[in-house]
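=== RUN LOG ===
request id: a7f3
mode: sequence -> structure
chains: 1
length: 234
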Amino acid sequence: MNSNYVLPVTIVVAGALIAGAVFLVGGGTTPGGGGSTQVTARDYDPATDYILGNPNAPVKVIEYSDLECPFCKEFQKTMHQVMQYYGDSGQVAWVFRHFPLAQLHSKAPQEAQAAECAGELGGNEAYWKYIDRIFEITPGSNGLDLAQLPVVAGELGLDVAAFNQCLSSNRYAKKVSDSYAEAIALGAQGTPFTLVMVGGEAITLPGNQPYDSMRAAIDAILVGGPEEGAPVTQ
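=== RESULT ===
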């Protein structure tokens, strides 16, 4: 990890502890509480992850999400705003991982597997479009009719028969459960659960963080970036 990034991350953590309102105003689907902490976590892995933005971005926002969580549905819009602001500069990228809270949303694990099947059949672009579409059509809180999963695949131009075979095989069940376990190990207690990461170090931002909070966390890191790289400007 580039040492020039370590201090800004520490500053963000301290700021979150002192002025929690900056980062902890968002709601979330959660059985318990939670606050911002600094953690060591798994960075973007092109062998298993899908990414929106520059894979070599110095800052990555890694989100653990539940496709039936109404707060995740709103946070999806926020993150698209974030990427509209930072994405073209190549400074920030977004990784979406699964954290289905099956005890609340029994349909969410299958929806997560469906997104993985979309990615298998259509690549990175199809994965993201599939997730966006599920968030568009679900009322949230376990309200989606699962019969819509292959319908969405067809809307995206995917081979529906191959999609159904993939989904019925449950071959992504372990990936989804491993992602869930990973989030728990990082301290997640609800969804969405987000990391703002540089290398293997990150701050955690639990809940439906508003756009200004995401900007504050990201900017605090980018301002302290390497001397040879300019901060993001707009």
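=== NOTES ===
DSSP finds seven helices and six strands in the chain.
Residues 1-26, 225-234 have pLDDT under 50 and may be disordered.
=== END ===
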